[in-house]
Amino acid sequence: MAFKVLVPRTVASEGIDYLKENGCEVDAREEMSAEELEAAIKDCDAVLLRTDTLDEKMIHQADRLKIIARHGVGFDNIDIEAASAKGIYVSYTPAANINSVAEHVTGLILAISRQTIKVDKAVRRGDFEVRDTSYGTELKGKVLGIIGLGNIGKLVAKKCAFGLEMRVIAYDPYAKPPEETYISKVEDIEELMRKSDFISLHLPYNKALHHFIDQEKLGLMKPSAFLINAARGGLVDEAALAEVLRDNWIAGAALDVFEQEPVPADHPLLKLENLIATPHIAALTQEAMNTMSLDCAKEIVRIKNQLEPLVWLNKKQMNKVD
């Protein structure tokens, strides 16, 4: 029986080609509904998964499933406990999109500091005089607060420290003191919230971190400060953020992620001029998409190749005549 790989959402062709070249039968779709995914997963050995959700019910019914290769960083769309209980191997691509996300965050910092989206819209409607009322903020010497010192947080710090001459402070109770001399670690989140001119989130999402940035923490920020989140939507209390932006308690925010995606068109945040919204695209450069697709495919083939000798051995034992 062929080793069947389900790809429920479009990925770069590099990964698909690699799977086929290594003896896999590939069922690749542009997108699938949850119901279609639930039906299809019962008949596959591996899933190359982007943003679709694999819940306990789906995993429980997937008796052939041996590996879930997550196209991206984080497992919040996979029921890990259910997969572990069935002995299903789960992988991800932690290094593939680091630079893409860090560049997007840096771009959001630049865009929000210079009111790029606001003035672009003004020029398009004929208001060239917006230049007399919309002054930007220079980044040189400003304090960037990084929450979460993983690979992406550290790379954002490096780009902003060396490229933009910003001063960087960071909060991460689980990280060792950084070796990088351009990062100063602070011991409590309140200090970071008060001191920073720009705050960028680089945390995973879990129940303990739900609405980590709440009204109380937002209230500690400078009136001139900006919040950037390209990590996970549930980290920020969006109702509280909409309130502080609407009342100009802080200067602005840039979000690439939302609690509900796609974000509803009538979401209160989308009505605010001091917010930049992008559709969860921080990791979606062509280079990162190619790497994530190929890395997932390589991991699927690696597991497939480990399993094949076991299948051959089992068949040999079954056919053995005493």
Give the key terms.
37% helix; 2 domains; Rossmann fold; five-stranded parallel sheet; 322 residues; alpha/beta; seven-stranded parallel sheet
Task: Describe what this molecule looks like in 3D.
The protein is elongated, with a radius of gyration of 23 Å. It has helices at 13-21, 34-40, 56-61, 80-85, 98-113, 116-124, 151-163, 189-195, 215-218, 238-246, 286-318; strands at residues 3-7, 24-28, 46-49, 67-70, 89-91, 143-147, 167-171, 183-185, 198-201, 226-229, 252-255, 275-277. The longest helix is centred in the C-terminal third of the chain and has 33 residues, at 286-318. Mean pLDDT is 93; it is low at 310-322. A seven-stranded parallel sheet has the order 8-7-6-9-10-11-12, sandwiched between helices. Strands 2-1-3-4-5 form a five-stranded parallel sheet. Helix 1 runs parallel beside helix 11 and helix 5 (98-113) crosses helix 7. The chain is α/β, with parallel strands linked by helices and 322 residues long. The protein folds into two domains: 3-96 and 286-318, NAD(P)-binding Rossmann-like Domain (Rossmann fold), CATH 3.40.50.720; 98-277, 3-Layer(aba) Sandwich (Rossmann fold), CATH 3.40.50. The relative contact order is 0.13.
Briefly characterize the structure.
This protein has 322 residues and is of the alpha/beta class. The protein has helices spanning 13-21, 34-40, 56-61, 80-85, 98-113, 116-124, 151-163, 189-195, 215-218, 238-246, 286-318, and strands at 3-7, 24-28, 46-49, 67-70, 89-91, 143-147, 167-171, 183-185, 198-201, 226-229, 252-255, 275-277.
